[in-house]
Amino acid sequence: MTITLERVTRINGLDNGHPHRVLEDVSVAFPAGRSIGILGTRGSGKTTVVRLLTGALRPTAGRVLRHGRVSFPVGSFGWMNRFMTGRENLRFLARLYDLRPEPLIELVAGIAGIGSALDQYVGAYSGAKRARLAFATSYAVPFDVYVADEYLIGGPPDFRDLCKSLVRQRQRASTFILVTRSPSLVRLFCDVAGVMHRGRLQMYETVQDAVTEFAELTALANGNGNGNGHDHGPDGGPDAPAAGFWDEEQSDAA
Amino acid sequence: MLSDRGRIWLVLMLRDIRSRRGRSAESFLLSLAEPIGQLLVVYFVFSVLNRRPGYGDSLLLFLLTGVLPYFQFTHVVGRIMGAIRVALPMLPLGAVSVIDVAIAQFVLETLIVVGVGALLLVVFWMLGIDEAVPRDLPRIVLAVLATGLVAFGVGVFNASLVVFFVAYRLIWTLIARSLIFFSSVFFVVDALTPELRDILWWNPLLHGVTWFRTGIYGDYPADTLSVAYLVGFGLVALLLGLSMETLVRRRA
After folding, report:
1. CA angle centred on B177, ends B171 and B178, rounded to 5°
2. Would you call A121 an interface residue with chain B, using a CB distance cutoff of 8 Å?
3. Quick one: pLDDT at residue A86?
4. Contact in structure between A190 and A206 (CB atoms under 8 Å)
5. Which class would CATH give A3-71+177-243?
6. Does ipTM exceed 0.85?
7. How much is the pTM?
């Protein structure tokens, strides 16, 4: 159960009068059951790749083959209708994926811990409640492939610990594809990694090789040839240690 | 495969109903009653003007049989034109496409108009309007399906066109509003002069209204009716609409 790209090209409008090729003739079969990190600098088209992987976007040329049940971007909230309650949105999702609604609702309620808010319109939710519901839902649905756009966990600190354990749990049986600009995230959660750069997606033998290559590209882009493999987190800040990233920068990620 | 799609369309319809109700329960009920309201307004104006029905004994029934196909067409097109906006947040779920949303909107809107229409016909019959009992039910079903085909095709075409040409939404609003005057809602097309008939013939909705009325009245004059044109227009619009939608998806 995984995703395969077959000669995929994706053009996103124009960049300085030329077609902006996010991907150009890229073929890659992501290994099933592994956790794959894809590193990309700001503006390299990471979100476009996530949208291609989840099926929200079609390639300009080539094919994206999805085998098994592929997740929506982990922690994303946009699919929920703000004029429906949390419970109604979960029922919609369960029916869409052909799952029994009540067990899913029960599981999400247990993970999210938002109590009676489940019966309020989601448009009235605070950011924290929104994040709890979104991440709880992401990991409650038994996806074969989880696709994440920068964020694997979110919400208030106590909830993030729960999220981390859910990620570990799901990693045992599912494929994870994390598209990010944070090498520390990739080091923490991935066992395979690649780098996106100028329309290419290069997969590496080891995570460290990918991180080193990414650091060099980042240093070059910043006008500094000294690639040192240090982190550049999703906020663009340098050298954010993994723990700091979890605790300070990913609040209410949804 | 088809049962999977059917499940998804049903789920999308339920979501649409819930979300409309969530916005405002009153406005949802009002949207169901809109055709009734419009019908009563037109009836009131015609009564004040002392107008006779274009056909049959009941002015109310004559107007209803014109207003229903008009509403079916304009409401379906309007809903489908919003399908891209409705579908966008759901696309990351993978299981839903813009066409799925358009089909769900189409079925729901058609069911609402058909439900309201059937209810009104029963009420009219109970009020003593015997003509309200349809003479040819299969013909009515076919007319509704053909008008639905045209509406779906035009809706998908319009939805794609507004992506490239935003002002078209306003142009379409004007076209849709004026269609009520050119679709034989208030008159019998066969009673017009040949010159006028030749011009109005190109309006597919006029054929939808005429076909629908032949199902209600049985012997409604229908020399102008061209089922082939109505269905052909629907198929061409659908083909163009789906091609445009594919183009939009590639460029989105």
Report:
1. 90
2. yes
3. 94
4. no
5. alpha beta
6. no
7. 0.83
